[in-house]
Design goal:
Layout lengths: L11 E2 L7 H7 L7 E2 L6 H5 L4 E4 L4 H5 L7 E4 L4 H6 L7 H4 L8 H10 L6 H7 L7 H22 L4 H14 L1 H15 L8 H21 L12 H23 L1 H4 L1 H6 L6 H9 L1 H17 L10 H26 L3 H15 L13 H8 L2 H14 L8 H25 L3 H4 L1
Parallel strand pairs: 1-2, 3-4
């Protein structure tokens, strides 16, 4: 804040990224007649009256460089060595900046006092090449050519569903690094303003498990009953752990493209990885809950067996199901705006129909009813995790359920991939 007071004639307006709301609240204590905060003004509004912009790695520099009132820009990159490693910057970014970045408060103070004028010519030639007033014409020409190309493709026959699925997997594998980096960032950003931070990601499902155990395990007297030879609590936990992951992953992934319309519209980005980012982002809590479930099982006389090897198969099956449903749901959520609300209600219903809290594979239920419920792919995963931990059945000993499960996965992969690639170029318009 001392650096901001370096020029006694300057008015400093602070506008932080929305993720940094908590830090902004702390900075407000330093506001005075020359250091201001304007919540009612957007970043774009403030830029139009700004002479000098102080920023770090933000794309706001590109917008500012185009304004007639832009006099100078100062890049304050105090964490440059660490930021270059994670999340990383373009190799040619520093060479393309119009001014040398400063990395210390002393350097920032000196730059403010110098009040030097910045030449944005080379910077704009590099980063704002197409901001010449003719962009609209180029966009129209591009879409005309694209439309002709699409018509030509339709005449020749569209890409087969299997090729679309292969393309989908290629994009996931090619962008694995981006998927893990963005999912890690989103995890930290989601809980940054909370006192307990990422602890909530694990605390919330544990609270729910405690409630369900009190209601169904103690209140309804299932606590002392035997489920596959073990007590109700470990039986419930090993089933509810994959359910928590699947439920959250599906709901988050279904709105992943809709929420990232800004990213989709402003840069070339592999849109198909957006649902996958949400799936990967929920894996941390899944692994933690799985370990807790195993520990609770061991404390309740569950012993490791060779059947635990099936965890690998059922985890792979769960991820494939999530990918298939996520690519399908994310596309349909854009085409049908009410789909996400419908999906939330449907997932609540499936919670009670997937054997998470109740063991309906008993004589208490009609055989035909049990058989229908067993065709539910979520039941296949929940039951599979239980069979791995406490059962004595291999997955290939249930060929009908296994075949039905993979047919459902293949169906949603084919349909979801087709919808995604058919409408991907129009997602921004549809949103």
């Amino acid at each position: 804040m001392d650096a901001f007071n370096a020029d006694p004639e300057a008015i400093v307006v602070i506008k932080l990224h929305p993720v940094l709301k908590q830090q902004e609240a702390q900075l407000r204590h330093y506001s005075n007649s020359r250091i201001k905060f304007y919540d009612q003004l957007s970043t774009a509004d403030i830029l139009t009256v700004t002479d000098t912009l102080i920023t770090d790695y933000s794309s706001v520099a590109f917008d500012f460089a185009l304004l007639k009132n832009a006099k100078s820009i100062i890049f304050f990159m105090f964490d440059l060595p660490a930021y270059e490693q994670n999340p990383g910057i373009q190799t040619d970014l520093l060479a393309g900046l119009p001014t040398e970045p400063v990395q210390t408060v002393t350097g920032l103070t000196a730059a403010i006092k110098a009040n030097s004028t910045t030449d944005f010519t080379r910077f704009n030639e590099t980063w704002n090449t197409y901001n010449d007033g003719l962009a609209t014409g180029r966009v129209v020409d591009h879409y005309q050519k694209l439309l002709k190309k699409k018509i030509s493709v339709l005449k020749q026959g569209s890409v087969s569903g299997l090729k679309e699925v292969i393309t989908l997997f290629k994009e996931q594998i090619k962008n694995l690094g981006i998927i893990f980096r963005i999912s890690k960032y989103e995890d930290m950003a989601s809980y940054q303003s909370h006192y307990l931070g990422l602890v909530w990601e694990y605390l919330y499902p544990l609270i729910q498990i405690g409630i369900y155990w009190l209601v169904f395990g103690v209140g309804l007297k299932h606590g002392g009953s035997s489920m596959h030879g073990i007590s109700y609590l470990p039986w419930m936990m090993i089933g509810i752990t994959p359910w928590f992951f699947m439920n959250r992953a599906i709901l988050d992934a279904s709105k992943s493209i809709f929420q990232r319309v800004g990213m989709v519209s402003k840069m070339k980005f592999p849109v198909s990885i957006l649902p996958t980012i949400k799936i990967v982002g929920n894996l941390n809590s899944f692994w933690t809950m799985l370990v807790i479930s195993i520990v609770v099982g061991l404390m309740n006389h569950v012993t490791p067996s060779i059947y635990w090897l099936q965890f690998v198969y059922y985890f792979f099956s769960m991820i494939m199901l999530m990918l298939a449903l996520s690519i399908f749901n994310s596309a349909v959520s854009i085409l049908v705006r009410d789909f996400h609300v419908l999906l939330q209600s449907f997932m609540r219903m499936l919670f009670y129909m997937s054997g998470v809290l109740f063991n309906f594979e008993t004589d208490s239920f009609p055989a035909i009813f049990v058989r229908i419920l067993q065709l539910n792919p979520f039941f296949y995963i929940v039951s599979g995790f239980r069979q791995s931990m406490v059962g004595k059945v291999w997955f290939w000993e249930q060929p009908t359920l296994t075949i039905v499960f993979w047919l459902i996965v293949l169906f949603f992969l084919l349909v979801g991939s087709h919808l995604h690639y058919k409408f991907r170029s129009r997602f921004v318009d549809l949103i």
